[in-house]
Amino acid sequence: MSPRTLRSDLYSFTSEEERTAPPLVISVLASLLERTISRNQRGIAGNGNSKDERIAAFESSSVLDMSIQSFLERVFRYAHAAPPVYVVAYVYMDRLCQFNQGLHIVSTNVHRLLITSIMVASKFVEDLNYCNSYFAKIGGLSTAELNNLEMNFLFLTGFRLNVSPSIFESYCSHLEREVSFGGGYQIERCLRNYMCGVEIASKERKRPESKNQFARVL
């Protein structure tokens, strides 16, 4: 896998018939989360996550017997989310950790965080998406549980769901570095307006995004 291949995959919006294999971003994101979990579980041994009720809602009493990659592939198989959805979900999970220092992504909450962030990202990125009850079935939850997780997720992120082209590009670059042996692989930037609706380049020039808005918690 190369950064160039990943970049091509991230910007593709192919039809269901044209896409049968999971996008490469799934493998990259799964690898990144696995390392994050390993690091977090060593760092918080004996302490656990925050007792905040909204954070605790994402905790499961047992670890799901399914790898992160298998779980993401299941979501892709049934939700047919486009590759950019997973990048935006990654942005949301990073923001969630930034805004809530007591939240650590571990094996007991990662699956619930993923299905919630992917569902919310799908609503932001795509014009057509499945209802909460369908995503709940994909994630092995009841509709009421996922509705509650979505509400907690929104409050924990302060309803900050907008992802500008520059921030999207930054996170794409971070994912590219995950598969770049040389590091900092430079490629052409060509994000379409599809990603962020009516946001235009002139507005971006007037209100440039700060590079410090994301802390790479993951």
- Distance between the amino and carboxyl termini: 21 Å
Helical/strand content category = mainly alpha
Shape: globular
- Approximate helicity band: 40-55%
| Main sheet makeup | none
Radius of gyration: 17 Å
* Individual helix count: 10
Question: How are helices and strands ordered from N to C?
Answer: HHHHHHHHHH
GO molecular function, one term: protein kinase binding
Keywords: Cell cycle, Cell division, Cyclin
GO biological process, one term: cell division
Family: Belongs to the cyclin family. Cyclin U/P subfamily.
Features:
Cyclin-like_sf; Cyclin_PHO80-like; 10 helices; mainly alpha; cell cycle; 218 residues
Q: What report would you give on this structure?
A:
- With 218 residues, this protein is an all-alpha fold.
- It has helices spanning 3-10, 24-43, 53-56, 68-79, 83-99, 110-125, 132-139, 143-156, 165-178, 201-206.
- The radius of gyration is 17 Å and the shape is globular.
- The two termini are 21 Å apart.
- Residues 181-214 have low confidence and may be disordered.
- One of its GO terms (molecular function) is protein kinase binding.
- InterPro entries: Cyclin-like_sf (IPR036915), Cyclin_P/U (IPR012389), Cyclin_PHO80-like (IPR013922).
- Belongs to the cyclin family. Cyclin U/P subfamily.
- It holds the Pfam family Cyclin.
How would you concisely characterize the structure shown here?
Belongs to the cyclin family. Cyclin U/P subfamily. It comes from Rhynchospora pubera. This protein is mainly alpha-helical.
